[in-house]
Amino acid sequence: MPSLRPTPVLALIAAATLLASGCSGGSSEAASSDGDAAQTATASFTWQRNTAGEDEDPVYEETTVEVPVDPEKIVVFDLASLDTIGALGGEVAGAPLDSVPDYLRDHLADDAFNAGTLFEADLVGIEAQQPDLIVIGGRSAGLYDDLSRIAPTVDLSTRGSYTENLERNVTFLGEVLNAPDAAAAAITELEDGVAQARAATAKLGTGLGLMVSGGRLSAQAPAGEDASGRNARGGLIYDAFGVRPAVADVEAATHGEPVSFEFLLEHDPDYLWVVDRDAATGQDQGAQPAAAVLDNDIVKQTKAARNGHVVYLDPVAWYIVFGGVDTTKIMIDDVLQAAA
Amino acid sequence: MLSFLLTAASLFTGVSDVSPLALWNGADEGRAVFLLAVSRVPRTLALVLAGASLSIAGLIMQMLVRNKFVEPSTTGVTEFATLGMLTTMFLWPGAPVPARAAVAAGCGVFGTWVFLRVVRVVPVRQLVLVPLVGLVLGGVVGAVTTFFAYRADLVQSLGQWSQGSFAGIVPGRYEFLWIAAAMVVIAWIAADRFSVAGMGEAFSTNLGLNHRRVVAVGMVVVAVITATVLVTAGTVPFLGLVVPNVVSLLVGDNVRRSLPWVAALGAAFVLGCDVVARLVRFPYEIPLSVVVGVVGAGVFLWLLLRRGTRAH
């Protein structure tokens, strides 16, 4: 695919204004009747954009995009950003509707349109809706080239520290939505929550993040500081919430490393933090739920099972969304409840 | 002998320390014995059953089609069975495992029938082209499966459970494979009839054999084996192809004589691959299907290439 250089920012803004005016071929002077003043204010966002293909080593290019403040129509592919926008009082005009979890539904506008899936965009549909801002991240990060031709597009993917990313994204979205105070308050609350959770996990001994899917187990690994996108997901329990890994050297693959039940018994962590992937992706697909998979004689011998320390994390929050204001609160609660 | 050694290797390979020595000393309050009973023995048994029955399934297909290069995964049978399983997941979520296996087996039977029809109708001149036709058929069915999986957001799950792996085998999760073992017994009883049926309808009718019925039995046996292994451990490619061919090189083509060899070598091959899968990235595992695929594909290519030098 030829990767066109992103058009200069000014042209983008001009295009966006033209689009927002909703006139076909009219003069570019015609601004929308409301929010005229708001259209002129912009917030800028800079990030290291990965320009390499999916299976190549990442090549980062610093990208800065100016986006309108108080945009009328926001299209969001990144569910964590959908969460944050809603939490800060904003509303989303378009999203991958089939993938929006129940607890984030009320962040959608009543007439929200379906923008595609978590991985792919309905470019024609989005173009027709003429959004003012598009937010991508994680699974949808690769859509940048296509979407940035339609409207100013920012990529709020996770890279490095989860909490730093959260602060950065909440601050930026607060700027965009003209709600800096709400953003600051949310950040303070989340920082306190994460600090509490870390204090709690410090007393819990070792832990192992475990993903269960289709009857198979994957051990999750601390992703460390260089994690990006979805690779950071499995490591959240260690990296963000301070659980001491029972196994130090699991490589951070997107879905962890396949292990057997024996592995659990051999490394015998004090706590098992389980994400039931099949429950997360909303498929009651006949694949046994994680609890049934882990209900066997080998697991029953482990310290975690004997002490009732097998924790089932909210799969949607930890696996699908893993970011955003309300989702982080759910994650904090999960950890605090386990430690209680 | 080889099988015996590999069985021993399988019993004593794993994350935990279970060695004959530990068993002997009764160390760790019988933990070694416990692990042997609930982890190693079931896994080894499941591998033996799956390996033997899949190889036999390949042998039966080769007899029915009279072609050395067919087996469930090169004729679309596996893909049809997978499609059946996906359909069950989609239309009847939470179906019990036997029901899923039954639907998968039904679709597998249909897949075998389709393949046999295609091969009969399309005059395929060269032996090597038959599995190609099967691969194309499988590709078409696989594409349908992927399309449905994509629409239903099941793509990743499909990948997860269709990847052959015996890492999750514990008592109560592999007993289904005994059905595959029963199929092997049926195959053994009917082996000569399959050979005759492979000679064609006219030939078998002259010998007083009900051709249609024998072919139907063969199809059911192949499909049931494929489906039971699929629902228990996922897909294991190339096995039914490689093992019977190697056996035919070693002991010739008399099915009566080669059948036990095929079963034994199939079991040994899968055991060996699974031990490798457990050791490559110790203490983590890699999917068994990856190991079998790499080794099996290599042997398959070798078999294809050496055909040129041998009259058949």
Automatic annotation (TrEMBL), chain A:
It comes from the Bacteria. InterPro entries: ABC_transptr_periplasmic_BD, Bact_iron-sidero_bind, FatB. It is found in: Cell envelope. Belongs to the bacterial solute-binding protein 8 family. Residues 45-64 are annotated as: Disordered. It comes from Kineococcus aurantiacus. Coiled coil: none annotated. GO terms for cellular component: outer membrane-bounded periplasmic space. Pfam families: Peripla_BP_2 (PF01497). Keywords: Signal, Transport. The keyword Signal applies. Residues 73-340 form the Fe/B12 periplasmic-binding domain. This is Iron complex transport system substrate-binding protein. Residues 53-64 have a biased composition (Acidic residues).
TrEMBL record, chain B:
The keyword Signal does not apply. It holds the Pfam family FecCD. GO terms for biological process: siderophore-iron import into cell. GO terms for cellular component: plasma membrane. Keywords: Cell membrane, Membrane, Transmembrane, Transmembrane helix, Transport. Its main location: membrane. The chain crosses the membrane at residues 44-65, 101-120, 127-150, 176-194, 214-239, 286-305. One of its GO terms (molecular function) is transmembrane transporter activity. It is found in: Cell membrane. It comes from the Bacteria. The keyword Nucleus does not apply. It is a multi-pass membrane protein. Belongs to the binding-protein-dependent transport system permease family. FecCD subfamily. This is Iron complex transport system permease protein. It comes from Kineococcus aurantiacus.
